[in-house]
Amino acid sequence: MNSASDDLLAGELRGGEHRLRLRVYYEDTDFSGVVYHASFLRFMERGRTDYLRLLGIDHRALFEGGGAESAGLAFVVRTMTLEFLKPAYMDDVLEVVTRPREVGGASIWLDQMVGRGHTVLTTAQVRVACVEDGKAQRIPKTLRDALAADAAKARDL
Amino acid sequence: MNSASDDLLAGELRGGEHRLRLRVYYEDTDFSGVVYHASFLRFMERGRTDYLRLLGIDHRALFEGGGAESAGLAFVVRTMTLEFLKPAYMDDVLEVVTRPREVGGASIWLDQMVGRGHTVLTTAQVRVACVEDGKAQRIPKTLRDALAADAAKARDL
Amino acid sequence: MNSASDDLLAGELRGGEHRLRLRVYYEDTDFSGVVYHASFLRFMERGRTDYLRLLGIDHRALFEGGGAESAGLAFVVRTMTLEFLKPAYMDDVLEVVTRPREVGGASIWLDQMVGRGHTVLTTAQVRVACVEDGKAQRIPKTLRDALAADAAKARDL
Amino acid sequence: MNSASDDLLAGELRGGEHRLRLRVYYEDTDFSGVVYHASFLRFMERGRTDYLRLLGIDHRALFEGGGAESAGLAFVVRTMTLEFLKPAYMDDVLEVVTRPREVGGASIWLDQMVGRGHTVLTTAQVRVACVEDGKAQRIPKTLRDALAADAAKARDL
């Protein structure tokens, strides 16, 4: 049901890394005049979600469990190491870059960056786990293979 | 499992109206220096949720369906008329006042107000419906009776 | 500094109405499985902000006061009447439609709609005021003229 | 202007650590049924903000610059290492514990924990910097001394 223009919304995947452009709105900022720190985590989650979307994951279907391998699955962040280097501002167009670093049976290690033009604003190393009712579950094999292929490409950059 | 101090967190119910005090944090504000307009809806939802909590509703249990009368139920906002009269600021202590105005089989009409001291900042008339899978459902009778009693008290104020 | 692809992010303006497509992410949903009601206000604010952007408004510059006519100005919602007709879900691609209905000296009346495909999910009538330090200010004339022209076009639809 | 009951809202400070109780509402959860990961950062920011409040910091006044030592100052997160160990749910009463670990001229290192009863849900090591227009500034001396005293107490625990 995804049209071509819906896919544009999901960013682009090239050379083993995913890039998503997004705009800073009122909702993302705080009274000190800059983007609120937790908004960067929302931006990074959008990047991860769309990256997996372009690898074939429909998050709602995955959770609601249409298929045999994937009933009730969701992705959750287990660990995250963040550096907030420079502020972002209202109206900015930002880019979220997501690269898989390593893929295990039930976990994905990703490197993420939020930038504006050539300026790096925030970086993160993230471990995401695949869970069902809070318990670790194997990542669907087709997804694992696609992530591993991207991780190999990203290492070659 | 609710301790006395947990109940304090849920505000207080007196004379047919519910009052909840809350603090404005960074997350609630935007770059223009004031509380972001949609944050007032989050504050009002906290007020409604805690009001129903003090009338005996455990929202998670209601949704997950522990009992006979209430499997899968949730409350959703159907209509809302808002007036944003004055701004709120970082560090402010606000009070959310919630009064039931009328109770139907599947809907509750509420008047809500967010104030700071004696200053009214935002007012809302809200219709909340009880739904299951998006379809209107009868409000559990014990809750309906409690709301109707409060609505009668609030009319006498 | 806005490139062509940045402008794509801001939606499109045609026949006196603005359309912005956006995706539903984890952050927009709540535990009952649908999009949280206040998230629709965030979506509508994105629509209004990008509509004004395409009419030439740089919100940060407006607030920080680069020019003669516009020092310290911001747009704030004064009144809002909302109908939440149908739920939206994780992964949905939604469209926010914004049409100016009337333009006064210091206020704009807008009709907004959030839809999915041909389904209307939420509608709103919104009055937005131009303020400086919380006090009503005249809307910059070039913006007022552009809004009035769009309102005339939208009436002809 | 803070009344006694406003101070209750700000949590309590004892033995060099700050504890803030808060409730999980609809707004904090996502469609997978648990608290959204970035909501924990909002909770931790509430803890840090109220901790500094009890040490005498009025965040709005600090930013708007009432006094000689503090014009235009704000606190921003520079680095954060997070572990999300267990999920939180709708209706939960959580506790945010904040302990200063070390205090420098322009930075504060804090350990934070969000728990439910005796269960640790999320932990974080956070470095917060004092900035003005994005540039590091010395932390006001009275605050630095109070933090250092708490850090010494917390080490003795």
Please count the beta strands of chain A (DSSP E, at least 2 residues each). Answer: 7
Listing every helix as H and every strand as E from the N terminus to the C terminus, the arrangement of chain A reads HEEHHEEEEEH
Oligomeric assembly: homotetramer
The average pLDDT value of chain A, as a whole number, equals: 91
Alpha-carbon distance between the two ends of chain A? 34 Å
* Secondary structure tally, helices of chain A: 4
Structural class of chain A: alpha+beta
Strand content of chain A: 35-45%
Percent helix range of chain A: 25-40%
Name the chain pair whose interface involves the most residues.
B-D, 25 and 26 residues
Q: Uncertain runs of chain A with pLDDT below 50, 5 residues or more?
A: none
Query: Main β-sheet of chain A: number of strands, strand sense, barrel status?
Result: 7 strands, antiparallel
As a whole number of angstroms, the C-alpha radius of gyration of chain A is: 16 Å
